[in-house]
Amino acid sequence: MAAHTTHSSQTPQATTNDAGHASASTGGGGGGGGGGKAHHDKAKQDVRVFEKHWAGGYYEGDPMDPMASSTYGVLGYMSVLHATYLRCIRPYVTKNSTVLEIGPGRGAWSRTMTHAKELWCLDVMSAEHNGFWEYVGKQHDRQRGGSTHYVQVSDFSLSSVPDGHFDFFFSFGVFCHIPFAGLTEYMTNLRRKLKPGAEAFLMVADYDQYNRAWDSLDQLGAQRPVLEMAKKSRPKWRRFMPELWWKGERERQNRTPRKDPKNDGDPAHGVWYHAGKGRTCELLRSLGYTVMDEDVGVLPRDPVIWFRG
Question: With 0-12 CB in 10 A as exposed, 13-18 as middle and 19+ as buried, what is 87?
Answer without folding.
Answer: middle
